[in-house]
Amino acid sequence: MSDFLRSYLTVAIFGLVGFALVGAFLGLGRLLRPDKPNLAKTEAYESGVDPTGDMWSQSNIRYYIFALLFVMFDVEAVFIFPWAARLEAYEIFGLIEMAIFIFILLLGLLYAWRKGVLKWV
Amino acid sequence: MILAADPLYGGDLLGDILITLLKAGVAFTFLLVAVMLMIWFERKLISDMQNRIGPNIAGPWGIFQTLADGIKLFFKEDLVPENADRFVFKLAPYLALVPAFLVFAIVPLGGDFNRKDGSDGVVSIFGHDTFLQVADPPMGILFFLAMSSIAIYGIMLAGWGSGSKYPLLGAVRASAQMISYEAALGLAIAAVVLQTGSLSTHDMVIDQAAGGYGGIIPNWNIVVTGFVPFFVFFIAGTAELNRPPFDLVEAEQELVGGFHTEYSSIRFALFFLAEFMNTITMSAIMVLLFLGGPAGPALFFPEGWWIGTFWFFLKLMAFLFTFVWFRATLPRFRYDQLMDLGWKVLIPISLAWFLLLAGLRLGDDRDWTYNETLAFMVGCIITFALLGGLLIGAINTARAERVREEADRG
Questions:
Q1: B119 pLDDT tier (thresholds 50, 70, 90)
Q2: CA-CA distance, B324 to B306, in Å (whole number)?
Q3: Looking at the domain assignment, is residue B30 inside a domain?
């Protein structure tokens, strides 16, 4: 196995141990704790009054818009990181190209801003 | 470009596996003990700042308080709400805790990086040369970004799976907050990557250990990248952790407990654990990215493998203290202020700073003269001023529109 893959294997093993540890905690808890559920205990918590209406209520559309904006910047990170790691290989050409890319991105942000999506009401 | 693989790989397989397991074991133990102490440290420190005594019964100075709380939680009944999506409800604690663990794998915990013989932090454990970090994958720091994204799933699914109103509100709020700041976080890291020319965390430490200005100011990225990415990362990191002043996720007055309202017993403890573990790993990542990780200030040169660990812990403690200090001092943000700070301040600033750094870095690479560098900086400042003007224009237009709307309404 190459060195490259081995370091990931180590991470994978570390992750599996993490999962096992969480599992062990939960297993130990299961052995130790009492288990006597009744309706009063398992009802959804609403500050002590009886819960009303649908539990999966609708949420503000703005959260969704922020998620869309985030996708824009996350995709940008995909381009920026490899470029940043090998900047000297691309020289001035790369710098100007990246400047244009980021400018377009900022225009997108400005558009969203101008549209008032960033305004939280 | 530096590309140094862990010298451990390539030796005999059995030895490698044993050393890797040993390192993983040490890292695990360290994390769990550190979380325990961190919770105690936070409670004790915050009581001091609020003129209280804090935990003082369990053990000397109440140091076993966390352990006692943990044991108590094992004996508590574990309730699953009747409306809950049972699978998602039980999956969420895993998704919250395991990424917090995993990030720690890429943090260099020690090794003498300042030694002049070019050993670059390699230490010898039972005759095997290796780095003092669990793994050094080539995409290093991207792994941190990936894991912090997965942690958002843990919170979102916990809130959604609970089948209750408060957790759902808390979870939606949390994920919107965390993704907003993740963009700024990534851009601050990009500035460091630009400086190092590598994604590997070990290479980042090597890069920061070298040289320094006059042997007094160390060559740490906080100085080299010009402070702005550090502050952006610090603010975005605090928001990412949902720690005060960005703790809107579990604003008790509005949301009861936030996304973990319906969790009880050991499942709640796992979320709690994850939160503090994230605080520790985020501090460790900040030390790594901006304060040279285990590399000490170039001024002092005691030798030995332990010196890196010493510096690392000193810097880690400084950050942990600051986080508690924030909590004791700063009032919580309002949600619109939070979003404004993330999208309208941090992202534009870090993008502009990133471009400036890229230009300077390139100039450094091409041996620009003083005048050329100056011309570049002036050009940048003019561009930023133009963009800033555009921005202010946009703000004014928006404000005028709002005023008009309000006038129309009545």
A1: low
A2: 27
A3: no
Q: Does a structural domain hold residue B239?
A: yes
Question: Measured between beta carbons, which residues in chain B are less than 8 angstroms from residue A99?
Answer: 355
**Is the same domain home to B195 and B333?**
yes
Per-residue pLDDT, B285: 92
The three-state secondary structure class of A97 is: helix
**Residue B203 located in a structural domain:** yes
Nearest chain B residue to A113, by CA: B394
Give the mean model confidence (pLDDT) for residues B52-81. Answer: 86
Predicted TM-score (pTM) of this structure = 0.87
Residue B375: pLDDT above 50?
yes
Q: Do B79 and A85 make contact, defined as CB atoms within 8 angstroms?
A: no
Residue A73: which of B160, B266, B347 has the nearest Cβ?
Answer: B347
B244-298 residue pLDDT tens: 888 877 777 777 778 888 888 888 888 888 889 999 999 999 998 888 878 777 6
Q: Which residues of chain B make contact with A92, given a CB cutoff of 8 A?
A: 362
B170: its two tokens: 């808390």
ipTM value of the model?
A: 0.87
B134, B252, B343, B383: which to substitute to probe chain A, counting the most A Cβ within 10 Å?
Answer: B343
Q: Which among B270, B135, B282 has a CA at the least distance from the CA of A12?
A: B135
Looking at the fold, whether B182 and B318 belong to one and the same domain comes out as yes
Instruction: Indicate whether B395 and B265 sit together in one domain.
Output: no
Same-domain pairing of B226 and B357 = yes
Domain extents in chain A: 1-33, 59-121
Q: Do B265 and B204 lie in a common domain?
A: yes
Q: What's the start-to-end Cα distance of chain A, in Å?
A: 55
pLDDT of amino acid A109: 83
How far does the CA of residue A30 sit from the closest CA of chain B (Å)? 8
Please give the residue range of the domain that contains residue B372. 368-410
Match domain A59-121 to its CATH number in 3.40.50.720, 1.20.58.1610, 1.10.760.10, 2.60.40.10: 1.20.58.1610
Highest-pLDDT range among B32-46, B103-117, B250-264: B32-46
- B102 and B246 co-located in one domain: yes
pLDDT for A94: 83
Residues A71-106: tens digit of each pLDDT: 888 888 888 888 888 887 877 888 888 888 888 888
Average pLDDT, chain B: 82
Of B101, B106, B172, the CB nearest to A63: B172
Residue B266: CA atoms inside 13 Å, Cβ hemisphere, count?
A: 19
Q: How many domains does chain B have?
A: 2
- Nearest CB among B9, B83, B343 relative to A3 is that of B9
Residue B55 lies inside a defined structural domain of this protein:
no
